[in-house]
Sequence to fold (854 residues):
Amino acid sequence: AQGCKTKRLAVSHAFHSALMEPMLEEFREVAESVTYGQARVAAVSTVTGLAVEGEWSTAEYWVDQVRRPVRFADAVGTLAGRGVTTFVELGPDAALVPMGTECVTPDGDGDGDVDEVAFVAVQRRDRDEVVELLTGLGRLYARGVKVDWRAYFAGTSARTTDLPTYAFQRKPYWYDFAAEASAYRQPSDADDLRYQIAWDRIAEAHEAGPTGPWIVVAPDGRGEDQPVTAITGALTRRGAEVVLMEGAGENRDALAQRLRTAAGGPAGVLSLLALDDRPHDAHPELSRGTAATLLLVQALDDAGIGAPLWCATTGAVAVHGSAEVASPRQAALWGLGIGLSLDQPDVWGGLVDLPADVDDTAARRLCHVLAARPGGEDQVAVRPDGVYARRLVRAPLAAVPAARRPALDAARPSGDAGNGTVLITGGTGGVGAHVARMMAADGAGHLLLTSRSGRAAEGVDALCAELEALGSRVTVAACDVADRDALGRLIGGIAEDRPLTAVVHAAGAAQSPGPLTAMTLGELAEVARAKVLGAAHLDELLGDRSLDAFVLFSSGAGVWGSAGQAAYGSANAYLDGLAHHRRARGLAATSIAWGSWEAGMVDAEVSAMGRRIGAPAMSPRRAVGALREVLGRGEGHVVVADFDWSRFAPTYALARPRPLLDALPEARAALAADDDTAGAEDSGLVGQLAAMSAADQERTLLDLVRTHVAELLGYDAPGAVDATRAFDDLGFDSVAAVDLRSRLTKSVGRKLPATMVFDFASPTALAGFLRAELCQDGDTGELPALAALDRLETTVAALAPEEIERMGISGRLQALLGRLTGSDGEIGGDVSDQLQSASADDVFDFIDKELGLA
Fold:
């Protein structure tokens, strides 16, 4: 075998030599002395990784090029060692650029030999060649590489032109921090950004109460506690069949199995898990109830239970005043639930906060809330004097009197201006840096800025120089605020002549967007760690110390929610609860639920999405102006965000009603305009459809749907839209769903449901729904069922095999098939045996054949 291999190599060598020899004669002269103008250009071989000495002129070199490993990294290293700092890839795609960047590591010694290396591609697959070439040339030119533009433009009509003789009108694009500091000292337009939470008393329902099976999940070992027995007793007396489960356990699969067998198909699920607000043993940033609720949400999804989930708390929200908030850890569950209402709108019931003493009246009122019609109030507080619903309302400055001292004079110790210390966590970058500038501009004598990186944080030296130029002394410390001991040492080290007078907790970690069903307990805890533990430790370590300001930077994710951000919303809702809890103890506290900020706080993609949905990011200048007003008035809980209600309200309320917005006239007007079909043009489509056959009707309506989808998503033609593909897979988001509904409403002249894109999940299914709505041919009764089957098939086809097995989908389909074939759930032995071992595709093929769809 070895001999055969050697022979083959010899033959290959001879073949390559004979093939290449005629080409090499012309190449030798060029290869040995490559020139650019009058300059000689050295070449480095990827065969040896060293400079070429003439071996390019031999056939053996090119045979070795095929046979031997490519020493790309060595070649790049050789060039970098000779001072090369710019590499250009001329290939058809940027395949080598990412590898090149991995081959050269900046030495960081300041001598410039490999610190400024750049790799530039001038072609990329599937991109415009001219654009990519010009972009590459522009990068090279900006790096000082000589580009012969005359040669580039030769043969075109391009020409040079003289510059104008007058001075240019210029616009700076860098951020002017000095101008920022000077501008809030100016009156702000904060009224446009200011909101707050209010509670409207609502009429009490008089229904008997919820009926059917209800699963009530109580904390482990607390099934006989007074609140639990009062609630289960009230449910039973009003006709519900209560199945009480204690604890969620620690195993997701085991809990899902318990839920499947607990009550068959329950009418609803009521979680009382939040009542256990003790810190979790492994993750103290979470309560045991919050951790158990995460497991319950996941297990309900795994078990395929689509009944509404309601979560109850006690002492989590302030209806009549901060004194009602006894448990900030339970407040965290409100942020989690609000996020779930966006991520799982079809199965989310709502949140109910109960009084500490759940008597018969409170339990009865809870039953009425649970029995309310779908789409009703979903954020409710039961109090001894009635039932209240949560609302977002305007908070004009005129309605809040200013404090005795303006703005952040509160950052100075009493009577001794300029000598106090202001502690800002997360103060070396992002939002915290802007707050530090405001504090310095307002005369703070000493700023203590903390972050995990401390002095190593990017841009910290420049920030300190700015703050010191404004008159403040600055100390930067590396401190993880989630580490109680480290934070204690930091606070204990503050000099007595500069006592701590104000705290701003701006530290926190963002959440990568994603549903709770895919999140581990550790990931939930990591999102909460800095925000929750940092705030809790500050509260504990400072005790009852008198402070002029204790400011918590919360987020709108805990108020109105943010898709895929339920964990982040939970952490921020804790901050809101803590502020109320501190104020109830007579201590300074302000929690501000912020919308997003510009200037590096959100990336371009998130910023563009914010504008698209009607929640644009605020400039730091506007946000800091609003902050100054909040602190100057000593407010406790304020929402500061920018909304375009004409865009935001219809998008926010697309999947389900949002009573939170009912007290905002602008939001109500936007929803009414979105729901109004009086101005829809009558295109005569209904009349045209009446004259068509069923097949033509289906084809016409499908073309209509695909046309609008193509225009919304930028497809070249309607035919490019896959009619059977789910809208989610096509690239639809909530804004596109609103726009599609508006377009189709105008086209058909009929009121269409806001949730139609969710209910009929593909163009084919949606066209079937439209035919059922518009065509009165007496043969439309089957269409909704077929549309639902299309939706089912689309949904299940996207699941992994293990998900299908875990959710028991095959078994449920077998039972459904039994009912369709009149066998009362019993399937013949042969068929049953086949289905037991069948794949998901086999099951669908079987159903198609049985229903005559194949």
